[in-house]
């Protein structure tokens, strides 16, 4: 299984926001620099995550974003599935429409792949976002935060 770019960047944003002190906010611009990606890529993702209630967004001169209360308890499978579905990219593992398949009436591959995809999400649901956080005393984390 391959995750799309929307999901990849969404996970990176959530992981980055975990390292913010509770009283601080980040911005899309700061995250773009920190993650070495385009600000434009992050705007749609941050908007989706704010709508989903995973992050809080504050407008204005001193505005920014941070993890919403309780977000660290979100299950990874649920996060990945929601991000995959919110992406504009195709989320099915097998596409019987392009090119059109002449075996669709008797082929069980789509159902099997869908079942495997659901098992993937279920496996990820054994973990929460908080479980991905490495202690801030880790040297690699310290170096990354100093950027």
UniProtKB/TrEMBL annotation:
Pfam family, one: Rrf2
Molecular function GO labels: DNA binding; DNA-binding transcription factor activity
GO cellular component: cytosol
Keyword set, alphabetical order: DNA-binding
SUPFAM superfamilies found in the cross-reference section: Winged helix' DNA-binding domain (SSF46785)
Protein name: BadM/Rrf2 family transcriptional regulator
Species assigned in the record: Snodgrassella alvi
Upper classification of the organism: Bacteria, Pseudomonadati, Pseudomonadota, Betaproteobacteria, Neisseriales
